[in-house]
Amino acid sequence: MTITDSFFTKWHKGCAAFCVLLLPLTACKEQKQAPKPAAKANFILAHPQDVELLVDLTGRITPMRVSEVRPQVNGYLYKRLFEEGTDVTKDQQLYQVDPRPYQAALDNAQGKLNSDLATLRTQTLKLKRYGPLKNMDAVSRQDYDDTLAAQEATKAIIESDRANVRQAQLNLEYTGINATISGRISRSIQTQGALMATNQTNPVAIITQLDPVFVDIIQPTAEQLRLRNRMANGKLETLRGAAHVPVDLILEDNSRYPLQANLLFTEVVSNQETGSVIQRAIVRNPDKLLLSGMYVRAVMHEGMEKGFLIPQEAVMRGLDEKPYLYIINKDNVVERRDIETQRMQETFWVTTKGINAGEKILVSNPTSYRPGQKVQSEEGRTPVGEVPE
Q1: DSSP 98
Q2: Where in the numbering of this chain does the Multidrug resistance protein MdtA-like barrel-sandwich hybrid domain appear (predicted)?
Q3: Which residues of 302-329 are buried (b: 16+ CB within 10 A; e: fewer)?
């Protein structure tokens, strides 16, 4: 073997060994470049059903009747005849103003009436005597006519006296201040011995009727128009058998008021500053739990419409706080879908806009996916729209 043959033989053997060392590295590189399998994603099918439309609004309790107790005569407050903060009935006496000056005025008016009645009797008897004498010219015609005119004037004075007596009697009755309505009375603003005046600015007490009471509900005009459009387009049905729109009341401590209110009417004029209208409901209040001026949440049962029940975990919110979710299209690609949520029902969001029947809604940790991502979809839980038992 020549020197050249020995060199080439060794060179070939070295190249072969080097290639053997490179094979695992090439295999690893090819393994890293293999495409990743699509992530698995659980979905549920959107299934429409009839859902009740509930509108959550702000309401305020307004008493059905409010009566400001005011004096109708001047005088000193003689006595208070009720217990503050209790229920009073109509025509119940609440205060007594010093009646003595008004009793004296009544006695004076009655005495004046009695005096004029006596004068009238005298004039009447005198005319009876003058009648035959006038025909015999025993009494002058002038005397007879003067007596007749005096009698007519006395009759007019008597009518005025009787009016004065009635006024004096009325003033005496007004010294007893009575309740004009039944309800709960406030604290007494004036105390015994205070001077009462008919033209005073402040009332002496306030009576509020608390059973039943009104609930004034503020509804944006835009929301009212949407509801009317849904009803006009046949998308919203009124509750069957309901004479009025029922309203549930949620109190300030988030407890539900046990009795249901009924909607009475809607104002025909909207507030130009707030763009809202007032809707008035009425509710019984036998335990006086609802007080005048109290704020409540009024949940109105507007009707039934087709909608979807979406699991709470499937709904996300963006920076603008608007809700959205992910759906899986026919190519198994994730898409974002903006929706409108109405309310919560158990662990579901109720929505009527943004979803179509039969669409696949991604429910397995949707925040870990992104729009445009390829996934392997697997049906997970109850279809959207059916509440599990």
Answers
A1: -
A2: 65-208
A3: bbbbebbbbbeebbeeeeeeebebbbbe
Tell me the per-residue pLDDT of 100-158, one tens digit each, with 9 for 90 and over.
999 999 999 999 999 999 998 988 888 787 777 766 666 677 777 788 888 899 999 99
Alpha-carbon distance of 121 to 127, in angstroms, equals 10
Looking at the chain, the number of H-run helices and the number of E-run strands are 4, 20
C-alpha distances in angstroms, 129 versus 119, 139, 142, 148? Answer: 16, 10, 15, 12
For strands 93-97 and 75-80, give the pairing: antiparallel
Specify the pTM: 0.61
Residues 6+ away with beta carbon under 8 Å from 383: 44, 45, 46, 47
What are the pLDDT digits (tens) for 109-120?
999 999 999 998
Output the six-digit token pair for 40: 């698995």
